[in-house]
C-alpha cells in the first residue's frame, strides 16, 4: 500500500518544485524578485512620478508597477497592459535568406515556434496576484479597494506561493463599502430603500461556482453574464492577453457582489455575492469544502455526469445534502430540469451564453425566494470566514492585532453607554465645539473694533483668555488620553494599523445613523436643486432650504472621523500654549511632533476648520515647524483645489495622485486640508522642489440657506487660491457661472489685500463633459469664459482703484492652455458601472499640465509656506467687506448706494 502512495507523493513534490521554480522565474521577469519577503508599500507608489504609459510598455519588468499605477488611477484596463518591445517578439529569418514558403514542414515549424513565444507571456492575472503577494498589508488593502472600484472580483481565498497555506485576506476588504437599492412594497406602493454597508458586514446570499475536470466552456465568462454583461468582472480565457499557462490563480477563490439599482431591469432584486473557485475543484478540496459550506447555492460545471467516478461520487454526495445545487453539463443538451427540491440540472450543448444566463438567473431567483428557511440558505458575511479553522487570516498578524487592541479601547469607550453618534463630539471632543466657535467669533471681532478701541481690545483679549482656560480645564477626556498615548507609544507599523482600525470602527459606528440622514439629505437636496433650476424664488424654496439646513446640521453632528480627533489635538495644544498652563493629564507639547510625523507619512492635516470658519494659526505654525525639523526646510509646490459641492474633486485627486483625503462615512468634514506628496527621484531632474503640497477644500456653495455660506465660501476660496502656486478650479459640467461668482470675489479680495504679495495661477477643469474632443474645439466657449473673467476683473479694478485690465493681470491664466475637459466618471449606470477609462486619461492629461507648469516654478520653502499662511490669514481677518457678497456686481451696487467698505 505504501509503495502505491510513494509515487504520487514524489510526483506531487516534483510538481510543486517545478511550480515554485516557474513562479520564481515569473517574479524575476516582473522585477519583483525578493519582494515576497521585502514587501512593496504605498509609499513606493504614492509619489509624483513620470506619466504612466497609457497603451503599452516596452519591457516585462515594468508590468507590475504599471499595473498598480494604472489601477490607482482607476483605469480598469490596467489588467490588459500589452508588452511591445522595440524589437518584435516573433522574429523571422534574416531578410537575405531565401525561404521556400511552400515548404509545409517549415511552415508548421514556424507556427509551433510562434506558439512557444505566445505561451511565454505572463498571464495578466499572474501579474495581479504577483503584485498582491509582493505587497504589504496596506498596499494590498489599497489595491483591493481600487479593484473593487473598477468592478473587478476580489481574492477571497488565496494559496500562499511559498507555504501553500490558504490565506483569507479580510484586512483588504475593510475599506470597501457596497451601495445598492432595494424595492419594497409598503401600503400597496413601491418604495426604494438605499443601503450602504461596509462589505465585510454585508449579509447576503452567496452563490459559488466550481469546475470539475477540464472543460471547453469558460465558467468565469458565464458568471460575468450574471453580474454585469458589459464588463468582465472575472478574468476569463477570452480576455485580452490571456495565455494557456498561469501559475498563481489555481486554487484562488474570487468574490464579487451584484448590487441592484432599484430599477425594473435589475437581474436580482437584492445584493448577492458570487464566488468563483479557479482551477479544477477536484484538486482544491479545502477551498471547495469551505465555499460549499458557506454558500446558499452551489453551481457545478462538468463535462458530463458520467465522465468519471470521482465526479459522480462528489455530485451524488451533494445531491443527497439539503443545500440547493445546480449542475451545468457541458455535453448535455437538456433544458433546465428541477429533479427535486432545490436540485437542478441543465445542459449547455448548442446553447448560447445569453440563453444559459437568463435560465440561470431565473433558477437563482426561484431558489432564493423560496420559503425553505435560513438553514437551507444561510446568509453569508465576510467577517465570519475568519472563524474557520485551517486557514490563515491576515488580521492575526501581531502588529495588526496590537493596533486593533489599542483602537478597541477607544471604541469601547464610545460605545459604553450606547451613546448616539451625534453626541460623541460634544461628550469627548469638547475643545472644538462651542468653546472654539466662540473663540473664533471673538477673535474675528478683534480686527474690526469700534468705539473705545483700546478698552474693547482689552475686553475681548480677556474673553479669549477665559475661553482658553475653559478649554484647558475640559481637555483631559479619556478618549484623547488613550488616542495620544497610543499614537506616541506604538511603533510605526502598529501606529498605522491603529489609525486605520479607528477609522474602520468609527465608520461602522456611524454607518446606520448616517445612512438614513444621508438619504433624507439627498432627497431634500434634489428638491432644492429642482426649484433652483426653475428659477423658483417662492416661499417653498426658502422652506425647503431651511429643511435642508436642518438636515445638514444633523449630518454635521453625526459626522465623526479621525480628522475631528486631530482637530481636538490642535485645540488642546492652542489652549495650553496660550495660557502656558501645565497639565498632568495631557502631554500637549508633544502634539505638533505627533501630527508632523503623521503628515510626513501621508496623512492629511486640517488647515482651516470649516465648522468654525477659522485657521488655528498657533497649531498650524507649530506643526509645520516640526515638519521642518524632521525633513529640513524642503521646497514645496503648493497645489490648491477648489470646486463646488459634489463636483468630483475628491475623485479627481484620488485618480490623479492616489490621495485619500480624510473623509468620514457619508460626507467630508468642512474645511481645507493639506497633504504632502513626495517627488520621486526620477522626477527631481525635471522639478525644482521636493514635495507637492496639496490643499484640498470642502465643496463650495452647498445648497442650504446661501446667506450663511457666502462669507465662508468666499473667504475659503480666497485663502486657498492665495496659498497655491497653482489652483485647480473644478467645475462639474460645462457651466462655470457659480464658480465665476466666487472667482470675482477672490479677484477683488486680492486687489484689496495689496500688502500680501500674491502671485497665483489657475487651471479650469470641466468634469462630466460628454464629448471631450468637441469641447476642446469649442473656441466660442473659451472666448466667452475669457470675456466674462476679464469683465469682472475690470469691474473689480474700477471699484478698488487698481491697475488691472484683465483677469490674468491678477491671476495668471491662459484660456488656450489652461482650460481642460474631462470625460464622465462612470461607464454606464452605478452601482455596477466601472469607471470610464476616458476619465482616467483626461485626469492624467490634467496632471501632465500641472507638472509642466510646476517644472517652471522654483516652489517655496516650507517656512515660506508657513509665513504665507500667517500673512494671508491675518489679511483675510482684516478684510470682511467683499466676502459678504455673491459677486462683483453686488459689491458695485452696494457701493453706488453709498454703503462702502467702511473703515
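-> sequence recovered:
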Amino acid at each position: 500500500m505504501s509503495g502505491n502512495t510513494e509515487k504520487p507523493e514524489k510526483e506531487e513534490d516534483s510538481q510543486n518544485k517545478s511550480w515554485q521554480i516557474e513562479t520564481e522565474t515569473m517574479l524575476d521577469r516582473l522585477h519583483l524578485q525578493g519582494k515576497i519577503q521585502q514587501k512593496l508599500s504605498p509609499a513606493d507608489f504614492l509619489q509624483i512620478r513620470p506619466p504612466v504609459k497609457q497603451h503599452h510598455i516596452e519591457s516585462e519588468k515594468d508590468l507590475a508597477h504599471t499595473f498598480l499605477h494604472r489601477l490607482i488611477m482607476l483605469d480598469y484596463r490596467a489588467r490588459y497592459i500589452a508588452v511591445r518591445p522595440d524589437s518584435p517578439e516573433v522574429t523571422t529569418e534574416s531578410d537575405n535568406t531565401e525561404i521556400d514558403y511552400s515548404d509545409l514542414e517549415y511552415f508548421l515549424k514556424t507556427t509551433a515556434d510562434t506558439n512557444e513565444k505566445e505561451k511565454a507571456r505572463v498571464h495578466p492575472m499572474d501579474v495581479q496576484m504577483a503584485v498582491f503577494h509582493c505587497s504589504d498589508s496596506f498596499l494590498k488593502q489599497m489595491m483591493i479597494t481600487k479593484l473593487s472600484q473598477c468592478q473587478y472580483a476580489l481574492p477571497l481565498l488565496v494559496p500562499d506561493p511559498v507555504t501553500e497555506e490558504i490565506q483569507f485576506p479580510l484586512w483588504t476588504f475593510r475599506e470597501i463599502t457596497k451601495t445598492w437599492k432595494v424595492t419594497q412594497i409598503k401600503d400597496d406602493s413601491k418604495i426604494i430603500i438605499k443601503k450602504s454597508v461596509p462589505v465585510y458586514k454585508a449579509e447576503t446570499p452567496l452563490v459559488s461556482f466550481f469546475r470539475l475536470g477540464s472543460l471547453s466552456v469558460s465558467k468565469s465568462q458565464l458568471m460575468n453574464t450574471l453580474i454585469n454583461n458589459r464588463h468582465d468582472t472575472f478574468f476569463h480565457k477570452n480576455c485580452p492577453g490571456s495565455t494557456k499557462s498561469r501559475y498563481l490563480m489555481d486554487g484562488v477563490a474570487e468574490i464579487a457582489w451584484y448590487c441592484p439599482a432599484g430599477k425594473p431591469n435589475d437581474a436580482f432584486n437584492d445584493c448577492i455575492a458570487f464566488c468563483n473557485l479557479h482551477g479544477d475543484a477536484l484538486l482544491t478540496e479545502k477551498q471547495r469544502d469551505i465555499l460549499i459550506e458557506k454558500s446558499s447555492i452551489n453551481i457545478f460545471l462538468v463535462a458530463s455526469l458520467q465522465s468519471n467516478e470521482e465526479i459522480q461520487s462528489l455530485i451524488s454526495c451533494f445531491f443527497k445534502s439539503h443545500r440547493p445545487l445546480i449542475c451545468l453539463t457541458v455535453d448535455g443538451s437538456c433544458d433546465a430540469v428541477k429533479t427535486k427540491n432545490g436540485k437542478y440540472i441543465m445542459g449547455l450543448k448548442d446553447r448560447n451564453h445569453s440563453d444559459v444566463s437568463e435560465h440561470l438567473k431565473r433558477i437563482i431567483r426561484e431558489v432564493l425566494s423560496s420559503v425553505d428557511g435560513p438553514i437551507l440558505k444561510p446568509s453569508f458575511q465576510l467577517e465570519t470566514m475568519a472563524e474557520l479553522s485551517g486557514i490563515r487570516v491576515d488580521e492575526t498578524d501581531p502588529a495588526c492585532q496590537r493596533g486593533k487592541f489599542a483602537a478597541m479601547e477607544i471604541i469601547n469607550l464610545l460605545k459604553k453607554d450606547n451613546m448616539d453618534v451625534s453626541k460623541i463630539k460634544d461628550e469627548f471632543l469638547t475643545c472644538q465645539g462651542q468653546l472654539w466657535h466662540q473663540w473664533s467669533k471673538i477673535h474675528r471681532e478683534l480686527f474690526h473694533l469700534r468705539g473705545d478701541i483700546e478698552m474693547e481690545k482689552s475686553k475681548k483679549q480677556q474673553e479669549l483668555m477665559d475661553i482658553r482656560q475653559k478649554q484647558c480645564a475640559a481637555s483631559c477626556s479619556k478618549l484623547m488620553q488613550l488616542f495620544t498615548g497610543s499614537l506616541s507609544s506604538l511603533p510605526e507599523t502598529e501606529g498605522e494599523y491603529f489609525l486605520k482600525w479607528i477609522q474602520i470602527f468609527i465608520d461602522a459606528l456611524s454607518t446606520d445613523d448616517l445612512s438614513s440622514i444621508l438619504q433624507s439629505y439627498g432627497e431634500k437636496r434634489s428638491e432644492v436643486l429642482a426649484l433652483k433650476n426653475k428659477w423658483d424664488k417662492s416661499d417653498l424654496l426658502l422652506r425647503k432650504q431651511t429643511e435642508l439646513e436642518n438636515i445638514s446640521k444633523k449630518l454635521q453632528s453625526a459626522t465623526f472621523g479621525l480628522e475631528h480627533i486631530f482637530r481636538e489635538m490642535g485645540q488642546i495644544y492652542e489652549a495650553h500654549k496660550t495660557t502656558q498652563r501645565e497639565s498632568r493629564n495631557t502631554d500637549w507639547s508633544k502634539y505638533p511632533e505627533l501630527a508632523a510625523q503623521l503628515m510626513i507619512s501621508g496623512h492629511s492635516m486640517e488647515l482651516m476648520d470649516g465648522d468654525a470658519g477659522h485657521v488655528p494659526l498657533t497649531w498650524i505654525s507649530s506643526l509645520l515647524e516640526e515638519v521642518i525639523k524632521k525633513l529640513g526646510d524642503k521646497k514645496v509646490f503648493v497645489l490648491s483645489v477648489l470646486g463646488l459641492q459634489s463636483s468630483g474633486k475628491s475623485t479627481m485627486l484620488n485618480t490623479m495622485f492616489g490621495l485619500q483625503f480624510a473623509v468620514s462615512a457619508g460626507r467630508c468634514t468642512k474645511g481645507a486640508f493639506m497633504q504632502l506628496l513626495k517627488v520621486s527621484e526620477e522626477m527631481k531632474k525635471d522639478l525644482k522642489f521636493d514635495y507637492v503640497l496639496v490643499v484640498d477644500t470642502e465643496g463650495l456653495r452647498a445648497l442650504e440657506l446661501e446667506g450663511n455660506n457666502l462669507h465662508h465660501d468666499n473667504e475659503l476660496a480666497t485663502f486657498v487660491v492665495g496659498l497655491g502656486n497653482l489652483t485647480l478650479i473644478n467645475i462639474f459640467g460645462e457651466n462655470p457661472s457659480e464658480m465665476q461668482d466666487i472667482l470675482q470675489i477672490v479677484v477683488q479680495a486680492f486687489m484689496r489685500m495689496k500688502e500680501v504679495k500674491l502671485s497665483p495661477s489657475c487651471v479650469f477643469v470641466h468634469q462630466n463633459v460628454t464629448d471631450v474632443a468637441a469641447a476642446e474645439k469649442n473656441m466660442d466657449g473659451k472666448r466667452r469664459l475669457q470675456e466674462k473673467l476679464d469683465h469682472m476683473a475690470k469691474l473689480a479694478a474700477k471699484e478698488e482703484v487698481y491697475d488691472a485690465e484683465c483677469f490674468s493681470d491678477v491671476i495668471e491664466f491662459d484660456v488656450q492652455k489652461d482650460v481642460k475637459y474631462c470625460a464622465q466618471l462612470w461607464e454606464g449606470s452605478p452601482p455596477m458601472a466601472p469607471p470610464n477609462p476616458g476619465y482616467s486619461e483626461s485626469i492624467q492629461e490634467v496632471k501632465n499640465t500641472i507638472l509642466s507648469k510646476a517644472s517652471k516654478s522654483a516652489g517655496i520653502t516650507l517656512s515660506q509656506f508657513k509665513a504665507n499662511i500667517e500673512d494671508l490669514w491675518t489679511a483675510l481677518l482684516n478684510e470682511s467687506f467683499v466676502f459678504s457678497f455673491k459677486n462683483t456686481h453686488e459689491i458695485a451696487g452696494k457701493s453706488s448706494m453709498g454703503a462702502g467698505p467702511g473703515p
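The radius of gyration is 31 Å.
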